[in-house]
Write a structure and sequence with these properties.
heterodimer, A: 109 residues, B: 114 residues, mainly beta, four-stranded antiparallel sheet
Chain lengths: 109, 114
């Protein structure tokens, strides 16, 4: 059973466009992490959100944790080719991380 | 500070063989977790070791096992390999503690079973 569903699964956009990736669950998490993975490498941690309703900004990336701590979103403003990669959300269930299904983003110049 | 290292990076094995993968965590990190990543199932948790003890385990058969040494280095073993074991195996380390916490991943070992 996949506890964390991400949408969309694939996203192909032009440089300069904005996009939002969603991470949804019926479970409550103590925190939620977002990672980006590039081909041939392991995932790299982008941010951790802990408090319900929390919003964190990392340059052009905005992360939000749902009020009920069951869902999260990642918004990218003015996407660049360097943003290309697999975006993964991961819910912290204290004893393990549950990873989402992933969103594969391709940004064309 | 050096990152998480995994060896080997690539491995080709035959069905029925066994394989051992190695992971060296970031210095000072006491928790090591292993994950399997496949196109169909995504990234799935295998197990976590903390202070040489397996603390948590995912839903994988007993053919998958691991251990952690006193210097926090960890190994993962898969016995009686099956074609479906072909995957990217990722190791991640964290400081450890009450929660599994933020994971710092290695580059992975790409295992192909023929």
């Amino acid at each position: 059973t996949q506890l964390l569903e991400q949408s969309p699964q694939f996203l192909s956009i032009q440089e300069g466009e904005n996009l939002t990736v969603y991470c949804n669950s019926s479970s409550v998490f103590s925190s939620l992490q977002w990672y980006r993975q590039e081909p041939g490498e392991g995932p790299v941690l982008l941010v951790t959100v802990v408090t319900g309703g929390e919003v964190k900004k990392l340059k052009r990336l905005t992360f939000q944790f749902g009020d009920a701590r069951k869902d999260s979103s990642l918004h990218i403003t003015a996407a660049q080719p360097g943003d290309t990669g697999l975006y993964l959300c991961a819910g912290d269930m204290t004893d393990k991380l549950i990873f989402g299904t992933g969103t594969r983003l391709q940004v064309f110049p | 500070k050096a990152g998480v290292t995994q060896t080997p990076r690539y491995l080709i094995k035959t069905r029925g063989q066994q394989v051992t993968l190695s992971c060296s965590p970031i210095s000072g990190h006491r928790s090591v977790s292993w994950y399997q990543q496949t196109p169909g199932q995504g990234l799935q948790f295998l197990f976590e070791y903390f202070s040489e003890t397996q603390r948590n385990k995912g839903n994988f058969p007993g053919r998958f096992s691991g251990r952690q040494f006193s210097n926090s280095r960890s190994e993962m073993n898969v016995s009686t390999l099956e074609l479906g074991d072909s995957a990217l195996y990722l190791c991640a380390s964290s400081l450890g503690g009450l929660s599994i916490g933020e994971q710092y991943f290695g580059p992975g070992t790409r295992l192909t079973v023929t």
